[in-house]
Specification:
The chain is an all-alpha fold. It has a single domain, classed as Orthogonal Bundle (Cytochrome Bc1 Complex, Chain D, domain 2), CATH 1.10.760.10. It is 43% helix and 0% strand. It is built from seven helices and no strands. Helix 3 crosses helix 7 and helix 5 packs across helix 7. The two termini are 23 Å apart. The N terminus is likely disordered.
Length: 131
């Protein structure tokens, strides 16, 4: 199974065994580090509130990829079946092209700690869907 298929499938054995680590951090220090990393690493193209070069991220958790209002997504993202969960955001920030081939985002975030912090921040601006 491809990396993308594993990330999209919540019933894979790896996913079941990782349930303890699938929770998103909610402590204020992690969220603040995530906010700072988001502004430094993502802020040139993204905003929580507004579409820019990339789509706005408020409410991203639980949302289908390619479904934010008033943003012109690549056909690959618009037609994908990806739902933004912690594991899919991890995969996306690690290697967007592996998760959704043909997408437009050219940035990869190599630091696992920064990915975790940014995901915690994004969860904090998507309070009803933190999984």
């Amino acid at each position: 199974m491809s990396h993308a298929a594993q990330a999209q499938t919540s019933s894979s054995p790896a996913r079941k065994n990782a349930s303890a680590s699938s929770a998103v951090a909610t402590d204020s220090a992690t969220i603040e580090r995530g906010r700072q990393a988001y502004e430094a690493r993502c802020g040139a193209c993204h905003s929580v509130q507004d579409n820019r070069v990339g789509p706005a991220h408020q409410g991203v958790f639980g949302r289908k990829a390619g479904s934010a209002k008033d943003y012109d997504y690549s056909p690959a993202v618009a037609s994908s079946k990806v739902i933004w969960t912690k594991s899919n955001l991890q995969a996306w920030l690690t290697d967007p092209e592996a998760l959704i081939p043909g997408q437009k985002m050219g940035y990869r975030l190599g630091s696992e700690t920064q990915r975790e912090d940014i995901i915690a921040y994004l969860a904090s601006v998507s309070p009803s869907k933190r999984k």
